[in-house]
């Protein structure tokens, strides 16, 4: 038995699940417990498993227990009623396959960052670049803010929708959608028969939507350059899985922030319903950026609630503290480059962290010559942020196979490269226009 445990040993969470499998198998065979409720019998090392797998821990234990129960049943049927004291060789082999499927996302070659960072800071940075170039491009056609444009595109592509459906589809809270709808009603780009009736485009709105969509299609072709139809379809399928998980995270965190009794994290891949609508969230696949924005919105909203609850920091403050804590002391210019924000916004946030005693500065006079490190309290919160991020990312990426993760990252890299080129072109247009 000891040899079997050593043969498949690995990270702490993995070793604990192996111990659970072998102990449970022994307990069933010796009659110490039945198969209806195996948890009280030889309970697993929950703290170790939760530390390694986060929200996926309970699901992982259930999967391992189901495997052990099924394996013992198969062994008894094969031997005519009994089962050997030591597990057969295929027991460890199949258990390893199961544990490989539970393995948290591995490191990616993407700029030396973990694969999960794409869902967090790198996704934000991509969207920041796309939004900056979009504001310059669309302003030459029609001066609307981003959310107004997204609603026009959504109604054009999907037809009439109620505000709750729009809110769910774009991942923005209902208050923001209501303000946007009010603006669009005032300039007569949308209309509705009654207050609670679905919104639809007016003739004027349809004309403007078509104009803007020509530009949107051009920008989409640029962003998806070197990405084939099959690759794009697989990318959308992964985004849809990630979106379902991000909605579950948001609903869970919203319950926690409202002081409700915490529940177990939902089962990965469970059916997802939009807020109060009873319908699945509609995902706009007409352009590559739209579902990424929706994914980012839901993940950011849950992240803001998580970090506020655990650290008292805003989502952006937590991000900046995390970047400072990754490789301290960090030079000012390196920090600004990583968070991809202007010096003013970065400076205000860093100053706020310094005033709260979470970050300290060293170096010559002037902020731009400084180097920054977390204080003792900042380091503590950095570890809290890291743990929470790992748990959130592990749950978010849980339904994906390793192949899906790798393909998603490869496609994401292409989009990011194209977004940089697109932004530089728009900046060049702006400079020419102001000469």
From TrEMBL:
UniProt organism field: Alteraurantiacibacter buctensis
Gene3D superfamilies cross-referenced by the UniProt entry: Winged helix-like DNA-binding domain superfamily/Winged helix DNA-binding domain
SUPFAM superfamilies according to UniProt: Winged helix' DNA-binding domain
A single MF term (Gene Ontology): DNA-binding transcription factor activity
Regions annotated as coiled coil: none
InterPro entries: HTH_MarR-typ, WH-like_DNA-bd_sf, WH_DNA-bd_sf
Protein name in the entry: Winged helix DNA-binding protein
Spans annotated as Disordered: 258-278
Key words, A-Z: DNA-binding, Transcription, Transcription regulation
HTH marR-type domain location: 137-232, 306-405
Pfam family, one: MarR_2
């Amino acid at each position: 038995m000891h040899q079997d445990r050593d043969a498949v040993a690995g990270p702490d969470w993995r070793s604990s699940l192996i111990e659970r499998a072998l102990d449970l198998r022994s307990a069933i065979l010796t009659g110490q417990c039945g198969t209806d409720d195996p948890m009280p019998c030889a309970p697993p090392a929950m703290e170790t498993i939760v530390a390694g797998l986060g929200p996926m821990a309970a699901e992982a234990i259930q999967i391992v227990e189901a495997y052990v129960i099924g394996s013992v049943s198969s062994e008894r049927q094969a031997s005519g009623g009994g089962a050997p004291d030591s597990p057969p060789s295929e027991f460890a082999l199949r258990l390893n396959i199961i544990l490989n499927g539970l393995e948290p996302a591995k490191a990616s070659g993407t700029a030396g960052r973990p694969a999960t960072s794409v869902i967090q800071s790198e996704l934000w940075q991509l969207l920041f670049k796309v939004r900056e170039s979009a504001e310059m491009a669309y302003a030459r056609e029609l001066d609307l803010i981003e959310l107004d444009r997204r609603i026009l595109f959504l109604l054009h592509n999907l037809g009439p929708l109620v505000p709750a459906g729009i809110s769910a589809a774009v991942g923005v809270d209902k208050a923001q959608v209501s303000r946007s709808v009010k603006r669009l009603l005032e300039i007569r780009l949308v209309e509705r028969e009654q207050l609670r009736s679905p919104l639809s485009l007016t003739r004027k709105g349809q004309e403007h939507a078509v104009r803007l969509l020509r530009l949107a299609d051009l920008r989409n072709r640029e962003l998806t350059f070197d990405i084939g139809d099959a690759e794009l379809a697989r990318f959308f399928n992964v985004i849809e899985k990630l979106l379902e998980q991000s909605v579950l995270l948001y609903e869970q965190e919203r319950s926690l922030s409202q002081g409700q009794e915490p529940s177990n994290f939902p089962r990965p891949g469970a059916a997802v319903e939009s807020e109060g609508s009873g319908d699945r969230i509609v995902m706009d696949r007409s352009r590559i950026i739209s579902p990424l924005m929706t994914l980012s919105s839901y993940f950011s909203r849950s992240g803001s609630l998580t970090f506020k609850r655990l650290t008292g920091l805003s989502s952006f403050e937590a991000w900046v503290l995390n970047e400072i804590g990754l490789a301290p002391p960090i030079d000012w210019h390196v920090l600004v480059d990583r968070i991809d924000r202007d010096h003013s916004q970065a400076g205000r946030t860093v100053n706020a962290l310094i005033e709260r005693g979470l970050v300290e500065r060293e170096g010559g006079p002037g902020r731009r010559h400084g180097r920054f490190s977390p204080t003792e309290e900042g380091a503590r919160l950095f570890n809290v942020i890291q743990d929470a991020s790992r748990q959130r990312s592990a749950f978010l990426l849980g339904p994906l196979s390793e192949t899906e993760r790798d393909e998603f990252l490869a496609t994401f890299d292409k989009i990011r490269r194209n977004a940089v080129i697109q932004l530089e072109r728009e900046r060049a247009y702006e400079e020419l226009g102001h000469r």
